[in-house]
Amino acid sequence: MTVQPSPSDFALALDQLQLGRRGRVSAIDWALLGTQEAARLRHFGFDPDVMVEPLHAGPFGRDPLAVKVGRMTVAIRRVHARAIRVVPAD
Amino acid sequence: MTLPAPLVAVVGNPNAGKSALFNALTGARQKVGNYPGVTVERKSGRAALPDGRPVELVDLPGTYALEPSSPDEAVTRKVLEGNQLGERRPDALLVVVDASNLDNHLRFALELRSLGLPMVVALNMIDMAARDGLTVSAEQLSQAIGLPVVETVAVRRRGLDAVREALEAAIGRPVAPVPVPADLAREARRIAAAAVVSEAPVRRWTHRLDRVLLHPVAGVAILALVMFAMFQAVFAWSETPIGWIEDGMAMLGTLVTDALPEGAVRSLLVDGIIGGVGAVVVFLPQILILFLFILLLEGTGYMVRAAFLMDRLMGTAGLSGRAFIPLLSSFACAVPGIMATRTIDNEKDRLTTILVAPLMTCSARLPVYTLIIAAFIPHREIAPFVNLQGAVMFGLYLAGIVGALLAALALRKTVARGAASSFMMELPKYQMPALKDVALGLWQRTVIFLKRAGGIILVTTVLLWALASFPKAGPGENQSEVSIAGRIASGIEVVVKPIGFNHDIALALLPSMAAREVAVSAIATVYALNESDEAQLEQSLAERLRGAWPLPTALAFLAWFVFAPQCISTIAVTRRETNSWRWPLFMVGYLFTLAYLAAGATYWTAVALGL
Fold it and tell me: CB 3.0–4.6 Å: which of B220, B270, B362, B428 could bond B15 by disulfide?
C-alpha cells in the first residue's frame, strides 16, 4: 500500500529555498515572530497559498533576503524567513 | 460664519504614490508641521473642486492596515477615526492604490470601507502596470468594490481632473459602512485578479536592475561609488556657493559696521547675529546638496536597496539597515541625519541611531581638524601616495565610525535594550521621480533645517555674545579674561586641565557649543585679542598655535572633537525627535564622558611617548 504524501511533507523553510526558485506558502509559524513582525509579514501579503520567490540575498552572510511575494518584492531577514514554510513549485 | 473647507485625507500603502498625488493636487502651497506630541509629520494643502469649492487635503502616513504597527500608522488610524489631536475627522478619503500591486493594496482599501466615509480610489501608476504587462480595468474594479475608481499617474500629473470630479461627487454623500470581509487578504487577491484584464509576461525592469544593484559584489561596489560621488559633490560643489555666502556675510558685516556707531548694538548685530547665523547658513549649500542626493535616492527607489546591502553589517552593531542612510547623512550634518531616522519603525533601533549619529564626523568638525592638522602634523609622505596629514584625517573619521558602532552595541545592551533589531522593507519598483516633487521636498527640508538650526543658533549666539562682551574690560585688562565667558572658561579650565587643555581651549569650548566650527574663530579671536605685536598678528593662526600649544595638547584637542557633542542644534533636534529632555541630556552626558576619556588618554599617551 502506498501512502500519497501530502504537499506539506515537502515543505521547507523559506530561507532554505534556492534563489530564483518559486514556492507556495504552506504555513506560517506566527509563534516564531514578534507581534510587530508578524503584522508586517501579513501586510506584505505573506499568507498560505501565496506564491513566493527568493530573488536576492544580502552580500554579507547572505542576509537579508529579497523575496517576491505576490506582485511585490520585500526585504526580510533570514531569521524571519525561517517562520515561513513553503512547498517548492515545479 | 463660513464652514471650514471639507477635509479630504489622502491614504494608501507605502509606495502607492500617495505623496506624489498629494503634491500634484495641492501644488507648492503646502503646510508642513507635526502632529502634537508625536514625531509624525503633518502635511496639508488646498485644492479646488471643479465647481470652485475649496477642499483641504491632508497627506496621511503610508499605512498597510488599520491595525497600526508603527507610530505613523497609529496617527493614520486616529485621524480616520476622528481621534487625533490637531485634526478633525476627514469628510472623505482619497485612497491611492498601485495598479501594478493591486492584490496587496486593495486589502487596505477594502478595510477602509468599514469607516463609513465617502471614498474615491485612485488607481495610480497605471503606466507602471502597463510596463509590467498588466491591463487593469478601472470599471471592473469599481464594480467589484462598489467605489468610484479613477486612473492616475501622479508623477506625470495625469488623471487629476477626474480625481477632482470624483471627489466633488463623493463629498457630502452619506455612505453606510461596509463590514470588513472575513478573509480580507484572500478577498483582496480575488478582486485584484478579476480587475486584471490581461497579463503579458515581460522582463521587468526592476528585476533586471536589481540583478546588478543587489549583486553581492557589483551591488556593493556601486553603493560605494554612489556614496563616494555623494561626498565628492557635498564637498566639491559647495565650495563656490559657500564662498558667496561668506563674502555676502562679510559685506553685510561691513555695511552694518559703517552704518552704525560703535557700541553694543553694532557689536550685537555684527559679531553676534551676522557672525553667528552666518556660521550656520554657510553650511546650507552642503546640506542642500546632501538633501538633493537623499531625495533622488529615495525617489528612485535606490535608498531601500542601499539599506538592503548594508543591513547585515549594521546588524552586527545592533542596528538595522534603515540606520544606514541617517548615519551617512550625519557625515554632512547630524541634524538632517537625526531627522532622517523617522523612517526607522523599531523604536529602540531609532533611539540608538539618534544617539550615535553625532559620532559621525560632520562637516563642522572639518575646519577644526584642518586647522590643528595643518599646525601640528608634518606634511610628510609615510607611504607612496599616503600623506601623514591625510592619514590622520582618515584616522579621525575612522575613530568616529568605530566609536559609533561600539557605542551602538553598548547602548543596545543597556539603555536601548529591547527586541532585536528587525529589517522588513518593501523594495519598490525603480522609477524616475518627478523633478517638481524633488524640488518641493528640497524646499521643505531646507525650511525645516533653517527654522530648527537657525532659531537655536540665533538665540545661543546672542547669549554667548553677551557673555563674552560683559562686563567690559578696564584699562590694562583683557576682555577674554574679564568677561563672564572668560570667568566661566577659568572654571572649565580646572576641569579640563588634567586632559592637557589650557585656558584658550577652555574659552573656545564655550562658544563652540553653538557650533563646532566656531572653535576656530574663537581661538583666532583669543589670539588676536591677546597679541598686540604687529608682527605676530601677521602670522597665520596655525603658526601661532604651533608656538603656543604643546603637541600632546593639540592631539588631545583633536580626540576631544571626535566625541564631544559640541552642537546646540543637534541637542535641540534630538529633544524634538525623542520628545523628551531625557535622551538629549543622556546623549550630552555620554558623549562628553567619551570625549573627556579619549582626550585624556591621548594626552597622557602622547606625554608618555615624549611627543
Answer: B428
